From TrEMBL, chains A, B:
<dbReference type="Pfam" id="PF00294">
    <property type="entry name" value="PfkB"/>
</dbReference>
<dbReference type="InterPro" id="IPR030830">
    <property type="entry name" value="Myo_inos_IolC"/>
</dbReference>
<dbReference type="GO" id="GO:0047590">
    <property type="term" value="F:5-dehydro-2-deoxygluconokinase activity"/>
</dbReference>
<dbReference type="InterPro" id="IPR023314">
    <property type="entry name" value="Myo_inos_IolC-like_sf"/>
</dbReference>
<dbReference type="InterPro" id="IPR029056">
    <property type="entry name" value="Ribokinase-like"/>
</dbReference>
<dbReference type="InterPro" id="IPR011611">
    <property type="entry name" value="PfkB_dom"/>
</dbReference>
<dbReference type="GO" id="GO:0005524">
    <property type="term" value="F:ATP binding"/>
</dbReference>
<keyword id="KW-0808">Transferase</keyword>
<comment type="similarity">
    <text>Belongs to the carbohydrate kinase PfkB family.</text>
</comment>
<keyword id="KW-0067">ATP-binding</keyword>
<protein>
    <submittedName>
        <fullName>5-dehydro-2-deoxygluconokinase</fullName>
        <ecNumber>2.7.1.92</ecNumber>
    </submittedName>
</protein>
<keyword id="KW-0418">Kinase</keyword>
<feature type="domain" description="Carbohydrate kinase PfkB">
    <location>
        <begin position="7"/>
        <end position="303"/>
    </location>
</feature>
<dbReference type="InterPro" id="IPR050306">
    <property type="entry name" value="PfkB_Carbo_kinase"/>
</dbReference>
<keyword id="KW-0547">Nucleotide-binding</keyword>
Length: 317, 317
């Protein structure tokens, strides 16, 4: 591949082991399906489904599941040039329970340490990160060294005019405390031009969980676009110039809410790169998220643009 | 339950996630079946299938897979009175690859530490351990504290006349070095009256992998029965009085060699408790192991006595 990538994401990868039946407690699940997973990885897959050139900066174990990750990335059209093995650390696996519409507990096996937290700043392809259309990083990438320094370094390489997204992705089990997560999210926000998070994540990052105040607080940190996911209330997006979009939820039968945020993210990258007006960007991302929520898989369920458009047209009709 | 248990085992438990198809590399496996697993647990299940009252001393995470473990134990008729939760440590999961007839790589997720290595000596039911017909412990239980001290304490409670089995079970990934494993195996052998291991495990425990010399070295440590599993060569058992049994392998189509040793162990307990002559004990255990090797599951595949007898009769015919 030559030229700049449209989207580079940086962060988690792993193998998701999901029940093949919904509504069953994990202790009763007899068979599991194996899927590519990890938030940053899913966002890259989602962007690739919209025709964007995408790569993920991540790390796997030197094991069969690591080989699966690369194979799956290739299948989804995500460039794996920034994926490397970390010998001695197993590729993480994650189990979930599916209690639609709104309860999807996760059980992470990211021990003794997730390989994706071993990304080092000196391994980064600085030119590629500088040149990418969108750089997408996550707060989870800040939870341990050397990934924290590497994530901040990657964000610091970006021109201030570029699309640099911080996904406020917060998982309490990866942190000593919410305060610690908030401290590093705050530092990362210095370099971001777009921030995306749900209400709980906004609370951790900027101490606000009322949507309008949370968006305002994110804009106060210097981002040009704040996207606040309000769950059943839809999405609020506020731009630095004051433009505000409220997107209502798209009604779908929810199968698995996991991955919907990543579908939203990949579609958001696509819409921002396309230069669409804000209402279209957010409406498109919102519909993409809804489509994935209506499907069992995450990475494997990321919709192509025409599927998203069809849902938007259907929802309007 | 009143009275002494026939069999108490002590050691590993976990959830086995096995490919639903054989001969496929792990990176290509799309669906996994979920089974009860862990060597000491499997031995208790195997003994229970022969009608023995059995319990396992082990620990799970305080999580859905921990609840599954108890549910499965109940289903298999294994007493769970010595099973407790260890908050903060996930119930281990183990993946395998199935390349019959002799290659079954395991991928353990026993991090940051397996709950079953958190068994403490002060938690042991001393009276129950003293009184049990068979006490079964494993070298893996010696790989970390406090489990090591607890395992040695449990073995030390046993009268010298009792059936006290040390399974030489050695997994390199659980140890700093083979020497360290050998040092603790040696200490545990002081308390054992029966030792069971394959050739590699005998090498670690007593520095010998030639079958007759390995059995002799185990007897020199004070056990009254040394059982050396020779893989495709069958089993060699030598008693302290010199009685020697060579059991040839039982020809079966191998599906999954994992769990065969545990089936052997549970059947060995049964035969020893029954007071059978040594050839019958070893022949029965050997056939039980072969039956499980011919089946996908481990715990779920443990045979009842009549199935073992049928195979023995069939093999003779």
């Amino acid at each position: 591949m030559t030229g700049a990538l449209d989207v580079i994401t940086m962060g988690r990868v792993g193998v998701d082991l999901y029940p093949l039946r919904s509504g069953v407690p994990l202790e009763e699940v007899e068979t599991f399906g194996r899927f590519l997973g990890g938030s940053a990885t899913n966002v890259a897959v989602a962007a690739a489904r919209h025709g964007r050139s995408a790569a993920v900066i991540t790390r796997t174990g030197a094991d069969p599941f690591g080989r699966f990750v690369r194979r799956a990335l290739a299948e989804y059209g995500v460039d794996d040039r920034f994926v490397a093995d970390v010998p001695g650390l197993p590729t993480p696996v994650t189990f979930c329970e599916l209690f639609p519409p709104d309860d999807f507990p996760l059980y992470f096996y990211r021990f003794p340490k997730a390989p994706d937290l071993e990304i080092r700043a000196d391994e980064l392809d600085r030119a590629a990160i500088e040149a990418a259309g969108v750089m997408w990083a996550t707060v989870t990438g800040l939870c341990a060294e050397p990934s924290r320094t590497a994530t901040l370094a990657a964000l610091g390489l970006r021109p201030r005019s570029a699309l640099t997204v911080l996904d406020l992705d917060y998982r309490p089990m990866f942190w000593e405390s919410a305060e610690e997560a908030g401290r590093w999210a705050d530092e990362a926000l210095e370099h971001a031009t777009v921030a995306v998070g749900n209400l709980a994540e906004c609370q951790v990052a900027v101490g606000e969980r009322e949507p309008v105040r949370a968006a305002r607080a994110l804009l106060d940190r210097g981002v040009r676009l704040a996207v606040v996911k309000r769950g059943p209330e839809g999405v609020l997006a506020v731009a630095a110039d004051g433009e505000t979009v409220q997107a209502p939820p798209v009604p779908v039968p929810v199968v698995n809410g996991l991955g919907a945020g990543d579908a939203f993210g990949g579609a958001l990258c696509h819409g921002l790169l396309a230069g669409w007006e804000l209402p279209r960007v957010i409406g498109f991302a919102n519909a993409a998220g809804a489509l994935v929520a209506s499907r069992l898989a995450c990475a494997a369920a990321m919709p192509a643009s025409d599927e998203v458009t069809a849902l938007m047209n259907g929802a309007k009709a």
